[in-house]
Amino acid sequence: MDTQSLSADALTHDAHDTAAPASANTNRVTLDDVPLNRFHVKIAGLTFGAHFTEGYAPGTIGYALCSLNKQIPLDALSIGLLGSSALIGIFLGSLVFGWLSDRLGRQKIFLLSFVIVTVAAFAQFYATTPAMLVALRVLIGFGMGGDFAVGHAILAEFSPRKHRGTLLGSFSVI
Fold this sequence. Notes:
By secondary structure, this protein is mainly α. The protein has one domain: MFS general substrate transporter like domains (Growth Hormone, Chain: A). The protein is built from seven helices and no strands. It has helices at residues 8-11, 22-26, 38-71, 76-104, 106-123, 130-158, 161-169. It starts with 7 loop residues before the first helix and ends in a 5-residue tail after the last helix.
């Protein structure tokens, strides 16, 4: 093989680094250096949207309890449990899903938590007893805890280094 058929990278290639192909060093772009694009905006939008709705869900139960007492008789214990059930679920869900995300992957947990929140939220329309509603609110919180455990990590993992601080810092606003 003559020297004209070799690339410039191959000629200057370090003898100690023979495992990597010569062309891999010149065209390599890391995930940290990619410019902000539609994919990043989509991930940020999903994560921000999830956190916005998850902040909305525990807060609205206070307003709903006033009118709910007319449809389902509630005692003081039921009102307290309904008010705190999503927070209990968030605590439990973030512990369980944080552990599971290390084994199954953050993307799967992010999707699963979204499905749990959505299904349990719609199932609330069919709750006929306070206990059923409390159980569904705990399940909603459980799903929200999964998103709390992996949402920031997913955004940090896929965000370009140049925009990572801005994207993660904007969670304080939401």
